[in-house]
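Can you give me the bound-state structure? Components:
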Amino acid sequence: MATGPLTVVETPLVRYVLRRADDALILGHRLSEWCGHAPLMEEEMALANVGLDLIGQARALYTYAAEVEAAGRDEDAYAYLRDVRGYGNLLLLEQPNGDFAATIVRQFLYAAFIDPYWRAMMASSDATLAAIAAKAEKETAYHLRHSAEWIVRLGDGTAESHARAQAALDGLWAFTGEMFAVDEGERGLITAGVAVDPESLRGVWSETVGRVLAEATLARPADGWMQKGGRDGSHSEHLGHLLSDLQYMQRTYPGATW
Amino acid sequence: MSRAPLSDPEALRIEAQRAAAPLAEQLPAEPLREAARRIAGEVTDPEIPVLTIADLGVLRDVRVEAGGVEVEITPTYSGCPAMNMIALEIELALSKAGIAPVTVRTVLSPAWTTDWMTEDGRRKLRDYGIAPPAKAAGRRALFGKDEVACPQCGSTDTAEIAAFGSTSCKSLWRCNTCREPFDYFKCH
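Here's the bound-state model for the whole set.
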C-alpha cells in the first residue's frame, strides 16, 4: 500500500481538471470548518450546503481527471494522497475562514468569477467538462446570490460589520488576480475550445463586484501587486495545515474504509 | 420481516442475493428490460421518500446485457449524498427480483433539471408538504420572482426564509396566510 505522496502524470488536461477540482475541494473543506460554528442556524445550513455543492463538483472533476490520466486511480487518491505542492488551487480559496465577513468576502470574490466561468464552460468542446459545468453553474448561481446578499448586509450594516467586511476585502483583494492567470498548457486548451479564457470574464467579474460593493457601501480596493503561485503548487502556509486535517485518516491508515 | 440495517451495504447485498429468484433467466430481453425499468424506477429518494427516481427523472436508461442489466442514473445536485444510496437501492431492488448482476452507471450529460420531474411527482411532493419547483428551470426561474404556492393552504402570499434548507435541493419558506413554514424544492 502506497503511503508516500502521489505522483500524477500531468498532461495539460489532467492538470487543468485537477486545478479546478482542487479549487472546489479546498473551498468546500474551508466551508465545512464552519460546521457547528456559524452565527445563525440558517447560515450553518447555507455554508454546509455550499460546501457540499463544491465537494460534489470536486468529486466529478477528480473522477474525470482519473479517467483522463488512466493510471487506475480514483477521486480519493487525488484528494487524500497528494502533497501540498501537488495541489493547484487558487491561493484565495485556501485562506483561513477568519471571521464571518472574511468567509463571505472570499466566497463572493470567487463566486462572481466561477459562476460565469462554468456558464461559459457549458460550451466546452469536452463533453464531460461541459456536463460538469452545466450542473455546477446552477449551484454557483445560488452561491453568488447568497454571498452577494451578505456582502450588502455586512457592508451596509453596522459600523462593526462594515469595518470587518472592508478589512476582509482589503486583505483578500491581492488574491483575485490569480483567477485570471493562464499558463502555456491551459492556453493550448483554450485554443482547442476545451477551456474558457478567464480573461474574457474579467469584465463580467469586475462589473458584478463593482455593483455589489457599491450597494454595500464598501470601497473597492485598488488593483496593486497580485499574489500568485497556487496554480503551480506554491502555496501559503495555510494549505498544509488544511491538508493535514483533510488527509489525516488516509495518510495514517492507508486504504482505511468504513 | 426483519431487514439488514441500511448502514451495512454488504449485509443488504447478501440478503438480496439470498432472496433472488432467477427472473433474469426466465424472461426474454425486452420484457426483462421493462421489468427492470419498472422495478428500478420504483426506488425512492431516501431524503424525500414519497418520490421515486422515475418521478424525479433520475432514472435515465435500463439496458439488458448478457444475464444482467445496466442502469443509468443522473445526479441531481453535485453534492447530493442521496445518490450513493439510490445506486445501492437500485442494485438491491433488482437483485431481490432475481435480476442480477446489476451495474449502476452515473451519466452527467445531459445535466438533470427539475423540469424532468413528472406531473405525478410534483403532485406527490405537494401532498407531502413540499412546494414543487417552478417550471422552466432556466436562470430566470432560478432567481425569478416566480410565485411559490404554500403546499398547505395554496396561498401565494409566501416568503423565503433561507435559500439553503435541510437538503441540497430545498429552501425554507413561510406562508404569510396560514403562517406555516414549508420546504420549497429549488429549481435546478
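A couple of observations. Strands of chain B lie at 59-65, 68-73, 102-106, 130-131, 158-162, 170-175, 181-185. The first helix of chain B runs from residue 9 to 19.
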